[in-house]
Design a protein that fits this description.
alpha+beta; Elongation Factor Tu (Ef-tu), domain 3; six-stranded antiparallel beta barrel
Length: 174
């Protein structure tokens, strides 16, 4: 919608009023972020950046090593040498009062730094706090218990499978 900015609040109020009988609710970027984290969707420049290669970002299904592409040899050599990071999704036990936003430190049970959160949000459809993270490969396995520091407080976190909500994509195909 194109309109003078001074009309923004008026238009919003009128839309909410007109949609009240249908249960209309505001739906914005925070809702989209929450839903994307529940699906373990990666974002540029968080989980997909020059810091991480496509294998580290768990984008294997998009890589066709038998085909020629720019950077193919380097990517395959890096993979053969051993990845430094692996993408993972974590459930964070915060008591639902705080969520990761990105760049939070992640530690193993012994207190050693093993990764960092790249994104996070409360998953309203699963009623859990979630964090997306890049972890050392030995800590990115499902079921691994970790610690994450959010706003100066350390919380327990567990690596879970990809897409905590609708992992079979049934809702996408409905």
């Amino acid at each position: 919608m194109h309109h003078p900015i001074e009309m923004q609040n008026y238009i919003f109020d009128k839309l909410m009023e007109a949609g009240a009988e249908f249960g209309i609710k505001p739906f914005g970027i925070r809702a989209m972020l929450s839903m994307s984290v529940e699906k373990s969707y990666r974002l540029i420049p968080r989980e997909m950046s020059i810091e991480y290669n496509a294998y580290e970002s768990a984008l294997d299904r998009f890589i066709k090593p038998e085909k020629e592409f720019l950077g193919r040899e380097g990517l395959l050599a890096y993979k053969d040498k051993g990845l430094k990071w692996n993408f993972a999704t974590l459930v964070v036990e915060t008591g639902n009062d705080v969520d990761a936003r990105g760049s939070e430190a992640i530690y193993n049970e012994a207190g050693e730094l093993v990764g960092r959160a790249t994104n996070g949000a409360f998953g309203f459809r699963i009623n859990r706090s979630l964090a997306l993270a890049m972890l050392r490969p030995d800590y990115a396995k499902e079921g691994t218990k970790l610690k994450i520091k959010i706003l100066g407080t350390t919380y327990n976190a567990t690596v879970v499978g990809e897409s905590p909500f609708d992992s079979d994509n049934a809702a996408l195909r409905a």
